[in-house]
Amino acid sequence: MSNHPLRELLQRESIQQHCESVYETFGMLTLTVSKENLLALCHLLKHDSALQFNFLSDICGVDHYPQRPRFETVYHLYSIPFKYRLRLKCRFELDEFPPSVVPVWQTANWHEREAYDMYGIAFVGHPDLRRIYMWEGYDGYPMRKDYPLRGYADHYNPFGEARSEKSEGA
Amino acid sequence: MTDISLLSKGEAGQKLTKELLLNLGPQHPSTHGVLRIMLELDGEEIRGVDTIIGYLHRGTEKLAENFTYTQIIPLTDRLDYLCAPSNNLAYVLAVERLLGIKAPERAQYIRVMMAEMARISGHLLISGALPMDLGAMTTLLYVMREREMIMDLMEMITGARMHTSFCRVGGVREDLPDGFEPRCREFCHVMKQRIDDYERLIAENRIFLKRTRDIGKISGEQAIDWGLSGPCLRASGVNWDMRRDNPYEIYDRLSFEVIVRENGDCYDRWKCRMDEMRESVKLIEQCLDQMPPGPVAVAMPDIAFPLNKITVKSSMEAMIHHFDVSAYGFPVPKGEAYVSIEAPKGELGFYIISDGSPKPLRMKVRAPSFINLQALAVLARGCYLADVIAIIGSLDPVIAEVDK
Prior knowledge:
The complex is a heterodimer. Chain A is of the alpha+beta class. Chain A is 21% helix and 24% strand. A five-stranded mixed beta sheet of chain A has the order 1-2-5-4-3. The A-B interface holds A 25-28, 54-58, 60, 62-63, 74, 76, 80, 83, 85, 87, 105-107, 109-111, 118, 131-135, 142-143, 149 and B 53-54, 57, 59, 61-63, 66, 97-98, 224-227, 229, 238, 240, 245-246, 335-338, 340, 347, 349, 351, 353, 361-362, 364, 366, 370-371, 374, 403-404.
């Protein structure tokens, strides 16, 4: 994988100016990118004739609590013509959310709604940012690391944890 | 919210129509589970679709963060419960990538064979359920007969019919039982003829053709943009199958054809699955032919459970070790890995971030049904209400996998 053609393609200036670092981990090339450059880089990766990352496999939200910056979104791209796989990572603090990539890949819509539902990552410019698994009016973001596994105790959930002062913000 | 006053008299006696909001589900036999759809109707025509999911959300990913790597395997069974072996396979491949190990050859053949059996089982159910949703009950009853044969084979190998949990990190739980091969070959022999039977039964049925041809069409380019994968994407003319293009396990040693169709309508998605079952039968036969003898789990006592139960029960150290591995799990090196396979529904991926402890920091499931279902809104727009049922059936969503 170290002399994979994709690695050379990613070393080009047009790609390099948008990303912070390129490295390989467990057999997959990974780009880290700031949220300001994310959308431009995605456009480039999809429309570059030598790359053509036309298939967005997955968007994954990650909570690195208590590390800072706390949140991360991970994008897994696939190029159907060239059979390349690539991972993009974008790390940010709460309230400094990355832009939505729906303008690049339509399929990002539900992926981003899921990350919003589970982590509260409010993608900027998302066309329809609603909860997807939990219901409207649900309090809190269940996949966050400071959210208890059994939820908070209420009328319907007597086995949940009692809400403390510290977790109010969750 | 729902305005039921559809018709009202206009001034000159002519009828005025109004858009109607119709709720379908969550308890509806043709939504294949607890799926709720809000349809905006103009007469019989669909103007807008809002798919509401989450009624079966069990928090698999949150649970996984609190389980050891071995304990997660049964959780993956419950995603796409029709094809549990494929889910197990995708998950253990991701963990094995992090550990830097590979299962012994025999185990790989067993896994692939079971994954293909699962593919037949999943495709059988949907290719029977789609005609049933459209009023042809007979096919479903016939496919259930063959599905039962697969269930029996699964039971023979694992002891369970649905939730097999047979894969382990670094291998499979145990070797194939005596007398399995002839039973499996008999199944392959029977199955080939039966697929022809189903096709004769339904493929040229005029009602079925009318209800599925040119219904819910999507172009290849659009299908890629919406992230469709598996038979739903190949029915639109995109020639992409990960078993061939990014082979995992021993798929590079097997020969099979990737089924691609052109139209991208409900009929082609159904037909694609039919033809894929034929290829799967071939794959199972090749696995049986090529399967070498040997161990079925890696010889790494820190990861794999000792197969010899007598040792565990007679030696104190072995028993302590067995307890240790089962109760506390094994640490997985720090890092992240995304591994995806060609599951019956499409690209099934597991993304695991490990912090070096015996439990994952984050496990993300790239569930193919979830993404395929998203395209319902595009496919159904402009169709008639009755076509929505055919489109849902042809997308083949398993709600347990959609809701994770």
